[in-house]
Amino acid sequence: MNPLIVGVSYRTAPVSLLEKVSVPPGDVPALLAGLLAQHSVGEAIVLSTCNRVEIYAAVSAFHAGLSEVSAVLAAHAGVELDDLVDHLYVRYDDEAVRHAYRLASGLDSMVVGEAQILGQLRDAYGVATAADAPGRVLHELLQTALRVGKRVHAETGIDRAGQSVVSAALEIGTEESGLSLEDARVLVIGAGAMGALACATLNRLGVGQLMVANRSMPKALRLAKAYGGAAIDFSAVPGAIEGADIVISATASSGYVITELPARGHRLVLDLAVPRDVDPALADQPGVILLDIERLGVALTGAQSASDVAAAEDIVAEEVGAYAAWLRGAEIAPTVAALRARADDVVASELRKLSQRRPDLPDELRAEVARTVHRVVQQLLHQPTVRVRQLAAEPGGEQYAALVRELFALDVTTDSVAQALPASGGCGREDSHQEGSRREGGRREEAGQ
């Protein structure tokens, strides 16, 4: 199993397509189930944010896995595969690992250096884990990606230069509108991750008056209380919009939340949702400055220093090499396990023959012979197995596993792969994590293959 990422983002697709591909939280379990039902897909994680949708998969074959994941994503979006393919980006093996690490580090974000993506990755991983969708390949990938992201933010200055999409959008919007946050009445619609980030950013920037609206009033109350704002009922949104200088909408609605704006002076509207919350036609209304994800993708520019980005890229490169070594070690592990099992079988067979030929041997002597033979075999295998693990961890090391299997005529089954894979270094819960290939093997048995 090797990691594969298939995605579509603000860089590769128009917002109209992103809106179709976007995965509401309630749809994620069904999409994960659809991915795991594919023949070549053993593990899966779905990441859906305001400006990207990515499928993380562990696949047994690249071309088959890519075809299956792309087809599932197109079916979910309700679009023809041919209409989606041109907007997809694909990362496989080491490049998939590099992409995941760069994403967690904020290097692939709309505003380079923002840290919100770390929380979004963590949430996607948690949802997938609850559905038992990742196996050890993706557990290791996501755990190390989160660690790499934290390391980049801790060891470089990318945090100081990078901004969140919210703070960058506010900076652009207030400059264009001439509004002052200190004197503004701001309405935030939506109490999810992006809404919470908007409230935190506004509070840090010293907003004059903050109102929070959400379909769930308890969530609105909690968020408003946390940042010194006032919660309003969702039915009161039209009236609140009329009196607001700045409106930030970030819900998970499938249709427009704002379709009209009462006439007044300058008003800034930030639509941070995918699908869009605000009818784009409102941008033509006099006095309205509307910034959505599509426009922000064009307007935002990175303020990060070249040295910080270079330092972050160096950390990513180092960690990619470490993951590649882990994965190559995972590939040799079942071969080594099969070799040792073969040796144990040979020893057991010879000891049975000895018992048949010399039934008169005392039990004590028979036990001593068995211990001696086992020690000899273990000593003979020790150095070769240690060395083959070392060689397998180097680039091109997969050939050593194949060579050992060929020399000793080993049959490495999916069960032996699952049992022999090394535990994820960051998890410590290996007993509860089933390798995707074991899941795949189970599906084949059920199908009578």
Structure characterization notes:
This protein is an alpha/beta fold. It has three domains: 2-161, Glutamyl-tRNA reductase, N-terminal domain (Beta Polymerase, domain 2); 165-299, NAD(P)-binding Rossmann-like Domain (Rossmann fold); 324-412, no CATH class. It contains 18 helices and ten strands. The chain has helices at 15-21, 28-36, 62-77, 81-85, 94-104, 116-130, 136-155, 158-161, 165-177, 193-205, 217-226, 237-243, 293-299, 306-357, 363-392, 398-408, 414-420, 436-446; strands at residues 2-9, 41-49, 52-59, 89-92, 185-189, 209-214, 230-233, 246-249, 267-271, 288-292. The protein has a six-stranded parallel sheet, sandwiched between helices. It has a four-stranded antiparallel sheet with strand order 2-3-1-4. Helix 11 (217-226) links the parallel strand 6 (209-214) and strand 7. Helix 7 (136-155) packs antiparallel against helix 14, helix 14 (306-357) packs antiparallel against helix 15 (363-392) and helix 14 runs parallel beside helix 16. The protein starts with a strand and ends with a helix. Residues 414-449 have low confidence and may be disordered.
